[in-house]
Amino acid sequence: METLKVKRKKIVAANFRQLLQAELTERCRLNPSYSLRSFARSLNVEPSSLSQMINGKRPITAKMKLRLGAALGLNTEQIRRLPSEDFPEEREPKNLTLDTFAAIADWYHYAILELTHVDGFQPNIAWIAQRLGITRTEANIAVERLFNLQLLKKTSQGQWLDTSDNGELTHLTPRQTSDAARTYQCQLLELSKKTVQEVPLDRRNHTSATFCFDPEDLPQAAQRITEFRRAFAREFKPKKSKEVFQIQISFFPLTKLKG
C-alpha cells in the first residue's frame, strides 16, 4: 500500500487503478459537478478508455501508467512502485487488513452495505447516490470495490447481498491505525457536524458528558464502548429497515499531558 501525494493531496492506494479511482472520487467530492469526462480531459485520454481502466474492463499498460502517472504529477519511481493490477480475486472479508480498509475507508462504503437491507432497496447507482447524498461516480466506484472484495454479491436473480456478517464487519483491531482510519473517523465527525445543522432534533440524538477519568482504565473503557456499540446495533436491528443511521462514540482527553 502506497501513500502518494497527488496534486498536494495524500492518497492511499494499493495499485494504479485504485489511485485513479481515489483521485476521481476526491475531485468529485470537492466539486460535485466534476465528471469522469473532466478527469479524462485533465489526463489527455479518451473518456471511454479511462472509464474502462477505472472499472477494470481494460488493462493499464506500463506505457499508459507512465503517461497517466506523469499527468497526475507522480515521479517515475512512484509510478514504478505502484502495480497496475487490482486486488486478488479471493479476499477474507470479515477481518480487514490495513490495506483493504484503506480501499473502502470512505464512510459510504459501509452505508451502501447497510442500504441493501433497507425496504425498497434498488440495486441502481443513481438511486444509491440519491439516497446517500453522494455523486454517481462515488457510488459507482464504491459498489465496484465492495463487489471486488466480496463484501457484496449478486444473486442469479440480480439481487445484491451484503456478505459482511450482517453489518458486523470488523474494520480494524483497536491497536491498528492508519491515515485511512483517521480519515474515516474525520469523515464521520464532519457528517455528524452537518447533521446537527441540518437534521431536526426528532430524527437524531447528539449528547455528551464531561468527567474526570483515569487513563489507566482506558483499555477497559474502550472494551465497554465496543460492547455497547455492538449490542446497541443488534438490539435495534429492525425486522423492516427504513433508513440507515450512524452511531459514533468519541471518547478523548480534554486535558493536555503534563510537560
From TrEMBL:
Transmembrane segments: none
Family matches, as CDD domains: HTH_XRE
Domain HTH cro/C1-type: 29-79
Molecular-function GO terms, alphabetical: DNA binding
Gene3D superfamilies assigned to the protein according to its UniProt record, in alphabetical order: lambda repressor-like DNA-binding domains
NCBIfam families reported for this sequence: Fsuc_second (TIGR02147)
Name of this protein: HTH cro/C1-type domain-containing protein
Lineage, broadest ranks: Bacteria, Pseudomonadati, Bdellovibrionota, Bdellovibrionia, Bdellovibrionales
